[in-house]
Design goal:
CATH topology of the largest domain in chain A: Aspartate Aminotransferase, domain 2
Strand content of chain A: 5-15%
GO biological process, one term (chains A, B): alpha-amino acid metabolic process
Oligomer: homodimer
Number of helices of chain A: 13
Radius of gyration of chain A: 21 Å
CATH architecture of the largest domain in chain A: 3-Layer(aba) Sandwich
Organism (chains A, B): Biomaibacter acetigenes
Structural class of chain A: alpha/beta
CATH class of the largest domain in chain A: Alpha Beta
Pfam families (chains A, B): Aminotran_1_2
Helix content of chain A: 40-55%
CATH superfamily of the largest domain in chain A: Type I PLP-dependent aspartate aminotransferase-like (Major domain)
Order of helices and strands of chain A: HHEHHEHEHEEHEHEEEHHHEEHEEEH
Strand order of the largest sheet of chain A: 2-9-8-7-6-3-4-5
Cofactor (chains A, B): pyridoxal 5'-phosphate
Distance between the termini of chain A: 51 Å
Domain Aminotransferase class I/classII large (chains A, B): 31-389
Number of strands of chain A: 14
Largest sheet of chain A: 8 strands, mixed
Number of domains of chain A: 2
């Protein structure tokens, strides 16, 4: 069989995730990886997960091992509803859909909204997993730069103005406004207010991807854009992957009822429903109010790592680079003043025994070639210091 | 926001699963449901599942609660490889992909192969979940009737001949050849040989959906079509949903390496990977050789129910209907001789306190209006008898 003749247009233009491929190559013993995007297994609440599993299995095995509604576990939906309301998000049961990770949330948003060639605005830089999904729906991606305060509102409005003239607006703006992956930047409150006004003015949707929201190590809490939503302009996604564990694949979407209904129809064809067992475990965990104390533990765990990374960067890169100071999440974004190319230097880093993700991997226009994403989440304190030092030896050559 | 202006073409033409909607309406206390497609919770190996969970959590929690490779758990892939080879399927590790239920297998097959308007051949009747997925990729569906020996090979070849003249062949033939959902029919060995020859002759793919394969209650075992595959014409899908439990959402695909690679790329955008935890539980269950004895138990469990249903139908419908005699799976397909319309009579059945799924729900051309799918899997022996009797009271009016 000649499969090349059979493949769909969408799959022909897709490549494997560059980061996933890069990580496969770079896994050699003893290497210090500042490249991962994973949460630390040290933060997984193993004992509590076990207890919750045993409890739900005992009391409810007939239901939680069976097929279940596409919308999600009703207890978990109620928990998400309450949690969302506490975040200032106005929502009912019908606004919520449980998904198999936020990756699926993104997939269903695209399934429901995108025709091939539709334009979507993404941040420069942005999360490659979502870019991959957008490309799989043959979206035309337009990047808008992020600075220390988040996406550049002026450039964004210029684009919207321009598109309004042509009569064809982008289908949505995809944002990770809080502790952004990869930049670590948080969109300011002022800009959140501006962007929701833009969305209303131009009648455009915002897809707010917010997996790191609960991982704030310092600074004032800022409400999600969704909490400012008055006219159903915002689709909000978040996840238990970073606060509980990724292996259960449980996440959620809060959006306009009509759109959620369409996403349910899309999900019926995609995987019928998210694992009933895993949803029940997560619901039991939340119901027993275990999340609050757990979050305290993991916040102090990650805060220490972030501090060590920022101190190490300060020590080694003071006069040769600029970098972000994230108040939460997993990532620091560092840009080299002399414009060294981080793609080209990657193999040198591997030789030295340290890896990062080159900045261009996150940019739909291939920009930010002098930048890199550095994650502190899964690295020992000692190795964060050592890794940053090794990096400095490469880039000050 | 006016969402109607924003929705994609694919979602605009999709309706919610008719069966899922029908079952929502029809759930009232005391009703006997012969409509479900679920396995019986009585067959779920709860204790063993618990033991496997505890074991894998203890020895491997750092890995099984973390993100994991898109391809699937390597142990589970090896188990599937061995199992497939025992079925006569020639395969390597790279031929296998673990999916979040076979529904996702179907979704990824479509993602990789279908452009809007591409033709796919399906059985009349066929599984609505897959039809839903096919429609979500805007496939043009052509139905080929199933008789007591499976899909009609002559009609199928006529269609292929015709399409060959136009130069545009269907992208694939979607088949559930063993204990078909909904008809219960099994494609004979002779026809399996014919169909693989057709696939080779016309250079066309077959998607073999085989979730009920292990649930044979009597008769001789027949090899999957995939075991006859010489030229990479067959993509095989099966699942742990019916033999273990559906709540874990673990299934698999065996296909040509190049195509599996493309499906992996598609899955990266869809849900990153199937729950690492659930894959580990299933792998542990299989590794401990628990499946073999478990299957013996559930086969005798379901066989009794099938026998009771066939006896009851024989008693009540002898001279007014024809029906299939499935050697495995969950379903009997019954067609009323006087061509009563099972859609129209559905509300009467609900009144009587019994439900089925009308035949037209399974047919892309709306045919088989005088047929219905009857499932014995989740119904008590007493209620199978009572349900069939109640049905006979409606249809002999």
């Amino acid at each position: 069989m000649n499969f090349e003749l059979l493949y769909s247009d969408r799959i022909k233009q897709l490549s494997p995730s560059p980061i996933r491929e890069l990580l496969k190559i770079a896994v050699k013993p003893g290497i210090i990886s500042l490249a991962g995007g994973n949460p630390s297994p040290d933060t997984f609440p193993v004992k509590e997960l076990k207890d919750c599993f045993l409890k739900v299995l005992e009391k409810d095995w007939k239901r939680i091992l069976q097929y279940s509604p596409t919308e999600g576990n009703t207890d978990l939906i109620e928990i998400i509803k309450q949690y969302s309301r506490n975040q200032g998000i106005n929502c009912e049961t019908e606004n919520i859909l449980i998904t198999s990770g936020s990756q699926q949330g993104m997939d269903l948003v695209c399934k429901v909204l995108l025709n091939p060639g539709d334009e979507v605005i993404v941040e420069l830089p942005s999360y490659p997993g979502s870019i991959h999904t957008l490309k799989s729906y043959q979206a035309k991606l337009t990047g808008v730069p992020v600075d220390q305060e988040g996406i550049d509102i002026d450039i964004l409005e210029d684009i919207l103005k321009d598109r309004q003239k042509t009569g064809i607006l982008p289908k949505f703006i995809y944002l990770i406004p809080t502790f952004q992956n990869p930049s670590g930047v948080t969109l300011t409150e002022t800009r959140r207010n501006s962007i929701i006004k833009l969305a209303e003015k131009y009648g455009i949707l915002i897809v707010e991807d917010d997996p790191y929201n609960a991982l704030r190590y310092d600074g004032e809490n800022i409400k999600p854009i969704k909490a400012l939503d008055r006219n159903e302009n915002v689709i909000y996604m978040s996840s238990f992957s970073k606060t509980f564990c990724p292996g259960v694949r449980v996440a959620w979407v809060v959006g306009p009822k009509d759109l959620i209904r369409k996403m349910v129809i899309g999900k019926q064809g995609a995987d019928l429903h998210t694992s009933s067992l895993n949803q029940a475990i997560v619901a039991e965990y939340c119901r027993n109010n275990l999340m609050e104390n757990h979050l305290k533990d993991i916040l102090s765990y990650y805060k220490e790592k972030r501090d060590i990374m920022l101190e190490s960067i300060e020590r080694h890169f003071k006069n040769v680079a600029t970098w972000t100071k994230p108040q939460g999440g997993f990532f620091v974004w560092m840009s080299l003043d002399k414009k060294e190319n981080t793609d080209e230097l990657f193999s040198k880093a591997v030789e030295k025994g340290v890896i990062y993700v080159p900045g261009s991997s996150f940019c739909v226009d291939g920009s930010n070639k002098n930048s890199m994403r550095l994650s502190f989440a899964t690295v020992s304190n000692e190795n964060i210091k050592k890794g940053i030092q090794l990096l400095s030896e490469i880039f000050s050559l």
